[in-house]
Write a sequence for this structure.
């Protein structure tokens, strides 16, 4: 066996932590299996209570919140009463240690790799670079970092958007004027618009994480907190090709959401009062008497699906080992769409999902469909609300989704990570444990 490198050491730590998780679960089961089952039941009841609270109004909503609070309190009391609270704390610590150590092992292993079919190549300094800046995005993040001044110090022409400006027109004008690299400082919706123009003209695109969540930047391997450092892509960067995706005539970099979420983001009040808008609209969309979501499509086994209130189509698949880790993609160049549909229509569905998520088996939820394909069609009898990279649209059916393999040249700082966040995440599954064991023993490709 080879002497372990740093990745191998972290992999051994992760495997020891995994053994600790298994041992603690065995102790819990041996001490009092009934108490453990009661805790899982309490979590399920809490989820069901929250479902009632969010899809009802008035007394029913108060009842749902009461059920959730009482269920959670009951689970804690059951653990304390049976003397299992220490074991639960040990389980939480072991799980946290496994998560941290496995991420370090996979991150170390990914260093020097791109995780892509096409490797990064060193790019020369841009001759005529333009950066478009949305000063209002991310709560004014560009202004706080004085991004325009920092860009000009590096010889990058900074164009700050004003009220009424058309972003697509500004991007087209910049390239018509001779820009050989174009960047966007703003949210993911703005990134998608500028990426569309960059794709059309075959010029590199630079993503500056000046938005609120910056999911695109995360999956590119950028440090979302280092707004100024992202400018290095213009002057001393690396280039690679990634996929884009399109629905009808609209390109997106992250995802398109259909169903309940898309309906909520259509509301004018959503931007300023997200929680209040959800609380007001969910009973109308999912409560008793709510109209059926008018969406139909073929599932992974080619059967017709008509009862999914939540549908997500992404540019490359998201990691779905746990729903809590669904926000990242391991790669952006697979040439496939990720498709997720959730049939959650009752409190019992939520209870089942919460219990499975607790034990890391959310993929076993019978109402969850998840697959990938190069194209995907959604049908409806009326115009469809779509949340496209966070922007609200209404599109005429049928919705034709298609992957655009290698469509975009992106430039990244040399110091950006070669591994997307999803590529450095692991769960207690057979495949992930096998991968960690391979790293620990010096045979990562077996």
């Amino acid at each position: 066996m080879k002497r372990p490198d740093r990745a191998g050491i972290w992999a051994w730590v992760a495997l020891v932590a995994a053994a600790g998780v298994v041992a603690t679960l065995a102790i819990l089961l041996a001490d009092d299996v009934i108490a453990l089952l009661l805790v899982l039941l309490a979590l399920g009841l809490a989820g069901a209570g929250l479902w009632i609270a969010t899809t009802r109004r008035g007394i029913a909503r108060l009842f749902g919140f009461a059920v959730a609070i009482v269920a959670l309190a009951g689970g804690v009391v059951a653990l304390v009463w049976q003397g299992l609270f220490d074991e639960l704390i040990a389980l939480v610590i072991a799980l946290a240690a496994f998560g941290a150590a496995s991420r370090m092992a996979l991150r170390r292993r990914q260093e020097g790799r791109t995780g892509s079919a096409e490797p990064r190549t060193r790019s020369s300094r841009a001759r005529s670079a333009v950066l478009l800046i949305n000063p209002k995005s991310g709560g004014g993040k560009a202004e706080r970092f004085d991004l325009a001044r920092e860009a000009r110090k590096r010889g990058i022409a900074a164009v700050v958007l004003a009220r009424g400006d058309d972003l697509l027109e500004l991007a087209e004008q910049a390239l018509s004027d001779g820009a050989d690299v174009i960047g966007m400082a703003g949210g993911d919706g703005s990134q998608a618009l500028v990426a569309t123009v960059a794709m059309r003209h075959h010029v590199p695109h630079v993503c500056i994480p000046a938005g609120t969540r910056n999911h695109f930047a995360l999956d590119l391997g950028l440090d979302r907190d280092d707004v100024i450092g992202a400018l290095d892509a213009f002057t001393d960067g690396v280039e690679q090709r990634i996929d884009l995706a399109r629905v009808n005539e609209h390109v997106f970099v992250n995802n398109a959401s259909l169903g309940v979420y898309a309906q909520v983001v259509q509301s004018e009040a959503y931007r300023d009062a997200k929680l209040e808008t959800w609380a007001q609209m969910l009973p109308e969309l999912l409560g008793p008497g709510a109209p059926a979501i008018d969406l139909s499509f073929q599932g992974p086994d080619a059967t017709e699906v008509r009862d999914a209130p939540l549908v997500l189509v992404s540019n490359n698949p998201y990691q779905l080992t746990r729903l809590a880790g669904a926000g990242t993609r391991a790669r952006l160049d697979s040439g496939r769409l990720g498709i997720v549909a959730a049939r959650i229509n009752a409190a019992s569905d939520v209870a089942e999902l919460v219990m499975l998520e607790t034990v890391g088996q959310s993929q076993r939820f019978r109402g969850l469909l998840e697959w990938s394909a190069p194209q995907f069609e959604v049908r409806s009898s009326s115009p469809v609300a779509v949340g496209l990279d966070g922007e609200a649209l209404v599109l005429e059916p049928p919705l034709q989704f298609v992957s655009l393999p290698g469509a975009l040249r992106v430039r990244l700082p040399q110091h950006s990570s070669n591994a997307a966040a999803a590529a450095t995440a692991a769960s207690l599954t057979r495949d992930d444990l096998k991968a960690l064991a391979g790293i620990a023993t010096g045979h990562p490709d077996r």
Summary: The chain has a mean pLDDT of 80. The longest helix spans residues 6-55.
